[in-house]
Amino acid sequence: MRKRSTAFPPHIFGKNYYKSNWDLIVALAPAFVAGALSYGIGPSLLFLLISALGAACAEIVFSFALSQSFSLDDGWAISMGMLSALVLPPSAPLYIPVLVAALTVLLGKTIPGGLGRSIFSPLILALILIFFIFPGALSYSWPSLEETGQTVIRAKSWYELFLLSSGNQALGSYSLLAILLGAIFLVLRNSLDSAVTLSYLLGSSFFLLFSKVPLPAQLFANDSIFFAVFLVPMAGTTPLTLRGKLVYGFLGGLLSAPLRLFLGPVLGIIFSLPFANATVPLLNYLFLPKARSYLLQPMKPVFRVGIGEVITSLKNLLLFLSLAKSKKKPTPEKEVLADESSEKGKTPSPVSTMNFQEYKEDAAGFCSFCTETLPECKEFLRTSMSKGWRFFQAADEEGIQGGMILGPTAEATFPVEGENLVHIACLMLRKEKRKRGLGRSLVELAIKVSEDKSGIWALAHKSLIPPGFLEHLGFKVVAQRGSWKLSLYSPKDAQVSFSPTVVKTREKRKKNILEAILPPYCSYLIKNYREAIEKLDLPEGMVEIREHIVSSKEELSSFPFWGIYLNGKLLATGLMEGEKLKAKVLKKLGE
Amino acid sequence: MAAPSEKESLPLFSPVWGEVVAVEKSVVPWSAEPVETIVIMPRKDELLLPITMAKTGFSPDELRFLLYRMGVVNLDLELIGKSAPLTLIVNGCELEPYLTSTQRLLEEKPKELLLGIELLVQAVEAERAILVISSENKGILEDLGDLIFAKKQISLEVFPPRYPMDHPVLIRKILGVPEENSLIIDLPLAVYSHEAVVLRQPFMEKVVTITGPAIRNPQNIRVRIGTMLEELVAQCDGFTVEPGMIIMGGPLRGQVINSLEVPITRYSKGFVFLPERNPFLETSCILCGSCIDSCPMGLYPVFICEAVKSRNWKALDDLGAENCIFCGTCSYICPAHIPHQKYLKRARERLVK
Predict the structure, then answer these.
(1) Any CB–CB contact under 8 A between A1 and chain B?
(2) DSSP secondary-structure letter at B129?
(3) Among candidates B185, B81, B91, which has minimal Cα distance to B134?
(4) What does the pLDDT read at residue B110?
(5) Quick check: A116 and B288 CB within 8 A?
(6) Nearest 5°: CA angle at B53, between B187 and B222?
(7) Helix, strand, coil tally for chain B in percent (to 5)
């Protein structure tokens, strides 16, 4: 029996990109031979070899420096080394091709961490850098294209046009025939993106509009064809679809025309290519059908106006106007709008009909508007009044609609310290009474009743209080820990801060422990947690469940806030659904 | 021998005359869990009694029942959710490399095939039947053309031999037949239906391709269901080299198995023995776009892979990942050897959830 193995189909493969790189190396050979014959075999060979070697060494060195693994066998570095030798004039000093090759490898492979991840063609970028660092290096003594056109027209020697030209031009573009041989080889091996090449040549023929050079002279301009065959269709810098490729090539050619007029044939192409490269993401977006271009999506239009939107906004406006009439203190427009979107058809009850009361002797009935008071809480509610806690309620003819607990800082069940301050320990509103200014009135009440203290603070989890709610009322966020924001309202510049966390050295746990840390005054939360934990329904012995109802700050020393903790790590806080909690617990235990 | 327990399943016939030795659970390569198998010890004085034809001219109901009882195919149209006007498509394309069993049947039994198609048309009361074959089988095209000409119901469609055109989804797409009005049946089943109805031979034999560079004498063999793969390899004169990879099914959609102790089932099409495992090296995407060009469903495999890698599950819907037919073309064509299929499977699992 063989070793058991799995493999995803398919089990046979086509060619890999290594092949196309080695094909490129072979295809460059005739162009090089032509250049060597014209310029001199010895110096050209040295020029080529040192450049290819430089590229290979650069890949090894950079890979070691960044502790990547190098892959010379893909042939990319060597082909880039050869290409950089062939786009440079052979009269350049020998360090120039080495630098170009090394920069190409650095920009194209080492820094992006693989091929195909740089937007711009790395060789072109390297050439541009070298052009600015060593201005003299790229001095092509190629006759300007105008003259070339004249030569072509008058040329009687087809030899010079097709086989071998002279002058100090790019080493690879001495012979058109050699370049075409390479191109044919690439086409036969299916390694050339001929759509890009052809559309690029077509685009660059639009140069015709800018000069008097006849078409054949432009089509047969060696440098343009060399770049169109070997450099422009480089994988990774072209669009992904055929239509995109055609547009890209045409655009690239078109862009190169004016630059060629001013900078000369080779430099014009070099400086125009990055502009074409930069259009690739846009072309990809344009030529991929909409539903699937998700990953390339640009910004969506912000304004969408349909009949539905118009009607809703009119409704909102009417509602706002009617409210503004009926109320002395209009609620902000934003709240009314939010209201409308959440519940339709209900007119909000104005806050003015609300009756605010404080529990004077016994707060045991405090929770009745929220839920049934649990016995654990009853004790706290009964005794805490003597310690300075205050309980408020808001009621209208329908019954109690909201409640608030204020407590002294010393008694707080949060790890917060401050002098002569009170805190809002609890602020609960009936669901249907929210967003109608009731919460605001309660907090304003809290500010009013604690004028003798130096300020009020509140610790709010981001999921429990709408963003900006406290800030609108003059609170300022003074500190933040995790998702908890500590806000302070103090006209007298009081100070409040988190107590330093005490990290208890926990006993070595063999078991997973799920701990619920609960506030003593909120039956609703306690009930919610208990229900969530009941729904957990984990296998016996998988976790040990503990519950702490915190009655003093010291008990919180190992846990910063109330919530559900698994092995000391916060799982959930605020109101919790059993299913979600279960999923979270299982995920953590799985890890 | 075994009666169907579920609605979709078919009766099973014992391919040999013998005794049931055991009914046990055994490990098979195509399933992660052990499967119920029946072990039969054949008798030496085995003989198969050919049943002579007793009746001709069946009603559609009778034909359906007969095909069902013979274990060939369950044609209960309500069960498979098809409605009239029905088009019967007989899939005679087999475009995965190496596999030739369908082609072979087409070449050897064209008359039986056409009779089988007629029977199936009667059974499901189809409006018309389309026989889809690939243009690779040019040799038999002319003969078949003459035969078909006489039968008005059946038309012939010739597909170019381009993988994966043999996929049911693509066949429907190319022929422009909606799914609920078309029934695709593989070509061998048409031949076997003819045998079942006319010769009263239950479905217990199947043509299987044993091939690959590692096999000395590649063949298409008609075998009884339940035959072990070892015996088939022996029939093909063994291996030239020790195979590095045994593929159950075609090399583009098949499954790798690790042993020769595999019985032939009704779903076996062929086995391919490759001499060595492909050195599978995933490199980074070079953004060549060839997977996009090649995808027959017009998807963007590279973007789906990126979405799966970055756990961007939301994007999967927009990218139409659920349309993937797992033909394997993108993985085959990818010059960077990215295992698209792996990521696409993961995407499918996610979408099913």
Answers:
(1) yes
(2) E
(3) B91
(4) 84
(5) yes
(6) 35
(7) 35, 20, 45
Q: Does B313 touch chain A (CB under 8 A)?
A: no
pLDDT of residue B17: 63
Chain-centroid distance, C-alpha A494: 40
Q: Quote the longest CA-to-CA distance of chain B.
A: 66
Mean pLDDT throughout A303-324? 70
10 Å CB burial of residue A105 (0-12, 13-18, 19+) is: buried
Sign of CA dihedral B258, B264, B266, B269: positive
Distance from CA of A567 to the nearest CA of B (A): 27
Task: Please report the pLDDT score of residue B122 as a whole number.
Answer: 85
| Residue of B233, B248, B252 whose CA lies nearest to B166 | B252
Candidate from B247, B298, B336 with C-beta closest to A17: B336
Contact A125, A274 (CB under 8 A): yes
Partner-chain contact B284 A117, CB within 8 Å: yes
Q: What is the pLDDT of residue A52?
A: 94
The identity of residue A402, as a single letter, is G
Taking each helix axis from N to C terminus, what angle separates B340-352 and B301-309, rounded to the nearest 10 degrees?
70
ipTM exceeding cut-off 0.85 for this assembly: no
Please indicate if any CB of chain A lies within 8 Å of the CB of B80.
no
Supply B258's token pair: 């690790």
Confidence band for A125, pLDDT divided at 50, 70 and 90: very high
Q: Which single residue is written with the structure tokens 């003597």?
A: A386
What is the token pair recorded at B160?
Answer: 């170019």
Contacts of A19 in chain B (CB under 8 A): 335
B 225-254 near A (Cβ less than 8 A): 245, 247, 251-254
- Residue of A402, A411, A412 lying closest to A442 (CA atoms): A402
Beta bridge partners of residue A426, listed in sequence order: A405
Of B277, B286, B331, the CB nearest to A10: B331
Tell if the CB–CB gap between A292 and B320 is shorter than 8 Å.
yes
Q: What is the mean pLDDT of chain A?
A: 76
Closest to A8 (Cβ–Cβ): which among B292, B315, B339? B339
Written as six digits, the tokens of A452 are 């003798």
Q: Any chain B CB within 8 A of the CB of A240? A: yes
Q: Of the segments A289-293, A464-468, B50-54, which one has the largest average pLDDT value?
A: A464-468
